[in-house]
Amino acid sequence: MIYIDKLEYEKIVEQAKNEFPHECCGYLSGIISGEDIFIKKIYPLTNIDKSSEHFSMDPKEQFNALRFIRNAGLKIIGNYHSHPYSPSRPSEEDKRLAFDTKILYGILSLEKPEHVFNLFKIDKDKNVEKLNYTIR
């Protein structure tokens, strides 16, 4: 099962709203215990593309976030980004750029008033699997 800390989920939503109409992005970090994944901390990053259709993470911020994650005894669980005007599913570009089959890809859609956040695994053949999670 995948568990997301409620406060960290709320931070993703807040970041997406604050950066609207551009896509926001960041890292998901936490711990893995057996079959369970616990997302404990997010690391918001700057979308240097300043676009509502794609994102590129700031490389310097990525490096610093990875250092903080390691120093906190956590692991990279995945990354996330928002879709300001489209559903919470990987776009063709998202699938094309999904190079790591071991991490989770989170997408928050702001398309409708009721925001939708989904987590996905994307395999080497670019097949997408939507995963269940619990916010707690």
What can you see in these coordinates?
This protein starts with a strand and ends with a strand. It has an 8-stranded mixed sheet. With 136 residues, the protein is α/β, with parallel strands linked by helices. The model has no long low-confidence stretch (mean pLDDT 97). Helices cover 24% and strands 37% of the residues.
Shape: globular
Strand content: 35-45%
Largest sheet: 8 strands, mixed
Q: CATH topology, what is it called?
A: Cytidine Deaminase, domain 2
- Tally of separate domains: 1
Biggest sheet, spatial arrangement of strands: 7-6-5-4-2-3-1-8
Number of helical elements: 3
CATH class: Alpha Beta
Distance between the termini: 12 Å
Helix content: 10-25%
Radius of gyration: 14 Å
Keywords: Hydrolase, Metal-binding, Metalloprotease, Protease, Zinc
GO molecular function, one term: metalloexopeptidase activity
Protein name: MPN domain-containing protein
Domain MPN: 2-136
